[in-house]
Design goal:
It contains two helices and 22 strands. The radius of gyration is 32 Å and the shape is rod-shaped. It has helices at 8-14, 273-281, and strands spanning 28-31, 38-41, 43-49, 64-73, 83-93, 96-102, 106-107, 111-121, 126-133, 136-143, 150-155, 163-165, 168-171, 173-174, 177-182, 213-219, 223-230, 234-245, 248-259, 265-270, 287-297, 303-313. The longest helix is centred in the C-terminal third of the chain and has 9 residues, at 273-281. The model is unreliable at 1-25 (pLDDT under 50). With 318 residues, it is mainly beta.
Length: 318
């Protein structure tokens, strides 16, 4: 495979050594940080394999979200003249590839370009790129001379969601693009490290909201009903304990319910035999303190606890 250059001027500008990708990130990096030295019109290029010894995978090694990508442009490149788009493809059979994601088209400047994006990916997806200059579709690439570096070619600039056929594959060439893939634990399409402040829930990308609880109670002869509402969906547990004297306690468990925001939920704390007997011994002028604990757990694991103290009147008959 041999590509023709767009022009001698572009060829001269590209035939230089570039800086490698720098910077530390906890995200998984993939692609190739090779030196750009060539370009060709009316094609989209994508990396299929890196030569042995390259620490980066040419394709996406893990599922997640691409939150950042880099492109090595020649330092002499005129700022804003060339535009570049990241293309993510998925093989759908044989030499058929679907464009499953792409970045915004961004103007290139000379040197290392870093762009923010948000493209959900699966392990095995393929990294490509395409550019435009004055309405012309083109692709930068690297002539590495190493047959272990392999790329594929699609004619033109396939749109998002379209399926295109590979027209050519060659060794000794590679695409000068790297991507940074962050995990996406809640599958909301936002990278957990830099884009999602609440990776435990797909409902929030801002910090996970705490659980705020509202309560009321109804005291009956042999039980207490606790009515609870929560500001967010959360599992809420209600328990009660009363001191009976001489180191004895009555413990009650109202159970756990998964509350929805704004709904009224009832919990019953049934008095133990010991608490019933204690109340029957006491005159109505005396009371037993029942400590009720209402606990809700947010999606981030933070626990909100509300404590109620109820005075249970004695039930002895005069």
């Amino acid at each position: 495979m041999r590509f023709k250059l767009i022009s001698a001027a572009i060829s001269a500008a590209l035939a230089i050594s570039l800086l490698g990708v720098a910077g530390a990130s906890a995200a998984t990096q993939a692609g190739n940080n090779c030196t750009v030295n060539s370009a060709e019109k009316d094609i989209t290029l994508y990396g299929l394999a890196n030569a042995p010894g390259n620490p980066l995978s040419a394709t996406i090694p893990v599922s997640g979200v691409i939150t950042k990508w880099t492109f090595n442009a020649p330092p002499e490149l005129e700022p804003g003249f060339f535009n570049q788009t990241l293309k993510i493809l998925r093989r759908v059979g044989g030499n058929q590839f679907q464009v499953i994601g792409e970045s915004a088209s961004s103007p290139l400047s000379g040197g290392l370009n870093t762009f923010s994006t948000r493209v959900p990916v699966l392990a095995g997806d393929i990294i490509g790129s395409v550019g435009t200059v004055e309405g012309i579709v083109f692709s930068f690439y690297c002539e590495t001379g190493n047959p272990g570096d392999r790329l594929g070619v699609i004619k033109g600039n396939p749109s998002l969601g379209s399926i295109a056929s590979q027209s050519e594959e060659g060794g000794g060439y590679q695409v000068p693009v790297t991507v940074f893939v962050e995990p996406d634990a809640d599958n909301d399409g936002f990278g957990d490290e830099t884009q999602d402040a609440c990776p435990q829930s797909a409902a929030f990308q801002t910090p996970c909201p705490p659980v705020a609880l509202s309560t009321s109670t109804q005291v009956k002869t042999n039980s207490v009903t606790v009515i609870v509402t929560s500001t967010t969906a959360a599992p809420v547990t209600v328990k009660g304990v009363a001191k009976l004297g001489k180191g004895k306690k009555a413990k009650m468990n109202g159970g756990t319910q998964n509350l929805l925001p704004g709904t009224l939920n009832k919990y019953r704390l049934f008095f133990t035999k010991g608490l019933k007997n204690k109340l029957k011994e006491l005159s109505p002028q005396k009371k037993v303190t029942l400590k009720v604990t209402v606990s809700g757990t947010s999606v981030s694991g933070a626990v909100t606890t509300k404590t109620l103290k109820l005075k249970l009147k004695g039930q002895a008959k005069g």
